[in-house]
Amino acid sequence: MVNLHGTSISEKYPFEELAVVYVLFFDEAQGHVPLLIYPDDRYKDDKKFMRPIRYHPIWFLGAEDVLDHIDLEFKGYTFFGKRFLTKSMRKKRRAGLEVETPETIVIIVSLPNKIEIFGDELIKTLTDEIRENFGSKMYEIIQAEVLRDEVIKSPETKKIIEKGNKIKAELMDLIDKTSNHFFSSVIKQSDTTSIRMQKAISYLAIKGIDVAHIASKNYKDSFSTIKIFDPKAKPSANFNAKNPFSISSINLMNDSQELEILVQNNTNKEMQDLTVKITHVKEYFEKEILDEFIDSWFPKEELLFISPTLPQIKEYLFFILDENKKERLFSKRINLELINK
User: Fold this and answer.
1) How far apart are CA 267 and CA 241, in angstroms?
2) Number of domains in the chain
3) pTM confidence score
4) 165 and 27 in one domain?
5) Which of 9, 140, 322, 323 is the most exposed place for a label (fewest CB within 10 A)?
6) CA 330 – CA 320 distance, rounded (Å)
């Protein structure tokens, strides 16, 4: 069994081919540092394996950014990233930072593109569980990770590392249980009439996940009683609703060096108080080139956004944010080299 970079990994976890979970923190001396990788923690020092994590756009966002999460596509996988601050009681290694300065924790979940429909809900579930159960303990794992690099370890240092390792093992176990429960129940919460969901369920079946009992009335420990592709099935939730917007067309106007993006409200309701942003990233710094407030966006309405482009910048990020809920509703990475081809 291999991971997305062709590296063999253990067979301990039943859903390892579906999701890889990275927990990282921002170190004041080293930058972003991995704390653990689920299901196999051995590859956090593997530069090839960590390449999409190192360059994930989650690191480029400012501290004031209100995005719910941000995604990156890489070699057939989607990496969902979410960041939050949590309690700290450790001495920092940079002047100007207090012992109580919060820790910055980043959760990244990698899913094959064929089942990326589950990503929004999975990263939200994992983040909620980690914050609730380990929010006050994360700094102890970080402290152990920092002290591990010391050449000479005092008895007190060894105790701190031992305690951090224990908490880290408990965190790994929580991620394991949360992921297993999520994939064991996700289908009965979804709309199997959706083409994206049909493809996702088919992918699960190909991977050997137990979906045989979906059509059975007497299922036990199965995903759902919903029949695959049954148009009469009534789901309790609709994953398709996670994408209320879609991009109808993207055009690059070479004469004026402007980018035209036509976006549709796919829902049957009026959307209010939205902010549309276009940013670019260069050398680890993010810069906005469009920030537009939309007070009302009518059902099925298409809006055209025109933004300037910058010399030598080929990749841009397009966001739609809900200002009231302070969450991301839609995001899309735009590569100018792929437009008009």
Assistant:
1) 8
2) 3
3) 0.59
4) yes
5) 323
6) 5
